[in-house]
Request: fold
Amino acid sequence: MPRFLIIEDDSQNARFLAEGMRELQAEVCVCPDGVQGLTQAVTGHWDAIVLDRMLPDGFDGLKILQALRGMGNTTPVLVLSALSATDERVRCLKAGCDDYLTKPFAFSELQARLEALLRRVQSTAPAPVLEVGDLRLDLLSRHAERGGRTLMLQPREFRLLAFLARHVDHTVTRTMLLESVWDYRFDPQTNVIDVHISRLRNKVDKGFERPLIHTVRGVGYCLSTQVPAP
Amino acid sequence: MSQRPWSSMAFRLALVYGGLLLLTMVVVLTIFYVQMVAVFSQRMDQEAKLDLQRLEQHAQQYGEDSLRREIERLLSDGVDSQTEIAILTDAKNNFLTGNARILPRRLLSNFGLRELQLERHGRAMTGRVAVAQLPSGNLLIVGSDMDALQDIEERFMRASLTAVVIVLLLALSGSVAFRRLVDARAASIRHTMLQVANGDLGQRIPLSGGDDEFTRLGSDINRMLDQIELLMDGVRHVSNTIAHNLRTPLTRVLLQLRSARHLGGQEQLQLLEHLEQEVQGLGTVFDKLLQIAELESGMRRQEFSAVDIPALLADIADLYAPVAEENGCTLELAIEGHPCALGDADLLANALANLVENALKYACAEAGGEIRISARQQGEAVELCLQDNGPGVPRERLPHITDRFYRAHEHQPGHGLGLSSVQAIVQLHNGSLQFANLAPGFEVRVQLPAAALMPAGAASF
Reply:
């Protein structure tokens, strides 16, 4: 069971977050201020910390993050911030946070990102070959095949599929895909990611009995041998 | 004008100027005095000495009787007879001959040049004389009347004093008048500024039409006020539209939430899902507005670096070409050379994505749409040009399309913030943004400052 620490001063927000995470079978602890939060972060053992950027009493999220990393603590930290300024994001990433999410956000986005953080820790050395059902991706030779049949993928399509495969059985959001596969951070107003996924689907799932790429309504996509629960 | 006159700068300046004038005058008058009076009295002394010498020599050569005759001849020759003085007395100071007597009667002990009280024709006066004792013991006194000189001196002093007083009065009244004048000009500016400070931004400083310092200052301030008023109007307009664009959907959400209470199972779920999307849309609008505000504040400029434009365009094309193809349209790139711009790759990608998305929305709604992106370096600038063959934007709407919440095609979905953020991004890069109608089609031209250095890996081209 994953253990999460939430450092957030808005009690309602914190409660919603905690409830949402408990529904996902996680153990959650909530700290309403910076000092308590830092103590908990250092003394407890956590799989990930959700940290609010702006906390009262001048001891804000960035300082906690810096203190934590200064002590050599490497627990993954996801910063929640009401500051959407882009240099703010850069500042937090430089201070050692692993991901950054701007308020308001959908809970599903937070969930997907937290799960990605946990997986990143578990698989520090990525395997050169990814396998999902009868799909096989060789990351070194950039070769993809399904059921023994070679898939003719464009380089970008390969990266997209590899990203989905790395997060197998987990939902990834459209923003995560744009960030990781295209390396750009902005919100496209059109369904541009959907079009790419549908092209990928045509190459990966067409002609096979069981589809591997699934749409998770209102959230994103999931590569899995099973149809994910809605 | 309740303040003390000294607190006025105009007054102080005029007064200091008056003081300087007075000083100049005193210096000039002193020079005048020295040149006139001092030189004159010096010459008198010299003449007295010379005359004395001559008469002494005369006495030596021809004897004292001849001297007496010479003195009488000198006094009656009609030259300088009003001022010249010559007296011969015996050793006991008894008058022998001459045209004046020494007052009071006493023995002279000082010889040489001196002043002496004399009486001539029954009138007391001061003489500037040279005195010598002849070998016989008689005293010879030669010189001239100082009254004339003293008179000149007196007149000179009186005239100088009058002039100084007049100058003082003139300087003082000039200072006051000058101060009033400057005060009156400054007061009209101050009056206007006070009204502006109290919130009446429409006030302007009345200009006299001349080209003096105050008029120029006034017109500068007026120009500044015009700019401030324009900006204020802009801010007011923006806050109004923001309020409208956020309140309307908020109200919609609230009303729908209320009606959701009375719905059952499946319908309620659907409505809630719809509401979630609506609130997320609000969040997007909010984010966009904040992003535009952040861009307009110019905060991110320090992180600029060389951006490889061909690579950026290739990424954008790679991202959007499938969307175009899906609709039976084309997206093509035409790049000349290897232009690099100074900027932020994420922001530039964002701006380009916005432009491409617009083109996709309007030109590629039906099959046959074409989007063409070209890039080239032109001197110090990188020029990007994006053309489509869509319906374009009516000419009269072009000036407004970068306004926040302005939507040239109202029937299309959108927030009306895309081009505002493109504009903000381009402005942050010190670039320029132009729109044109191609009839049919729409053209966007973006000019960005070129980067001096190419990013690593781009030099191989």
About this structure: Chain A is about 40% helix and 20% strand. The radius of gyration of chain A is 19 Å. Chain A has two domains: 3-122, 129-223.
